[in-house]
Amino acid sequence: MLVLLFFIIAFHITSAALLFIATIDNAWWVGEDFFADVWKICINNTNCTEISEEFVDYSILRAVQASMIFSTILCCIAFFIFLLQLFRLKQGERFLLTATIQLMSCLCVMIGASIYTDRRQDVHSKNEEYYLLTSEGSYGYSYILAWVSFSFTLISSLMYMILRKRK
C-alpha cells in the first residue's frame, strides 16, 4: 500500500509540474524566428511583446490564460486535500473530494487547450509584421504538455475515485 501511495503522490506532483510548465513556458506556438504562448510573443529571442488589446480576439487568450491558471490552482488544492484526507478519512472510505477537484482541474485544462486549438488562427496582431511572421508555425511543446497534463489529471482523478484508504 505504501508503494501505491508513493506512486499516486508522484503522479499528482508530476501532473502539477506539467501544468506549471505548460502555463508559464513560452512555447505554445513556435516558428523559425519566433515563439509565442498565451502571455507574449518573442521574435528573435530579443523582441518580446506582451499580448494585449492590440491583438484581435484578445478575449480568447484571456480565457485560455484563466482556465490554465485555474487548472493549476485546482491541481495544487487537490493535492493538499488529498494529504488532509489521507490522515482524516476513516478506513475504507474513498477520496471523492480529491477526485472531484482533480477532475475539475482536468476539465479546465481541456477547455483551455481546446479553445487555443480552435481559435489559434483568430489570435493575431493588428500589426502586420507580427501577423505575417506568426502565421507560419506549429504547436510547441508547452501546448503538447497541456494535453499531456490533461490526460495525467484525468487518470489521477480516476485513481482517486478508485482508491480506498487501507492499512
UniProtKB/TrEMBL annotation:
Positions of transmembrane segments: 63-83, 95-116, 141-163
Q: Single GO molecular-function term?
A: protein kinase binding
In terms of Gene3D superfamilies, this protein maps to: 1.20.140.150
Location comes to: Apical cell membrane; Cytoplasm, Perinuclear region; Golgi apparatus membrane; Membrane raft
Q: Which GO terms describe its biological process?
A: actin filament organization; actin-mediated cell contraction; apoptotic process; bleb assembly; blood vessel endothelial cell migration; cell-matrix adhesion; early endosome to late endosome transport; embryo implantation
Q: Which InterPro entries match?
A: EMP-2, PMP-22/EMP/MP20-like, PMP22/EMP/MP20/Claudin, PMP22_EMP_MP20
Q: What keywords would UniProt list here?
A: Cell membrane, Cytoplasm, Golgi apparatus, Membrane, Nucleus, Signal, Transmembrane, Transmembrane helix
Q: Where is the signal peptide?
A: 1-16
Which Gene Ontology terms of cellular component type are present? apical plasma membrane; cell surface; cytoplasmic vesicle; Golgi membrane; membrane raft; nucleus; perinuclear region of cytoplasm
The membrane-topology field of this record reads: Multi-pass membrane protein
Q: Can you tell which superkingdom this protein's organism belongs to?
A: Eukaryota
What task does this protein carry out? Answer: Functions as a key regulator of cell membrane composition by regulating proteins surface expression. Also, plays a role in regulation of processes including cell migration, cell proliferation, cell contraction and cell adhesion.
Q: Name the family the entry cites.
A: Belongs to the PMP-22/EMP/MP20 family.
Description of how the protein assembles with itself and partners:
Interacts with PTK2; regulates PTK2 activation and localization. Interacts with ITGB3; regulates the levels of the heterodimer ITGA5-ITGB3 integrin surface expression. Interacts with P2RX7 (via C-terminus). Interacts with ITGB1; the interaction may be direct or indirect and ITGB1 has a heterodimer form.
Q: What is the protein name stated in its UniProt record?
A: Epithelial membrane protein 2
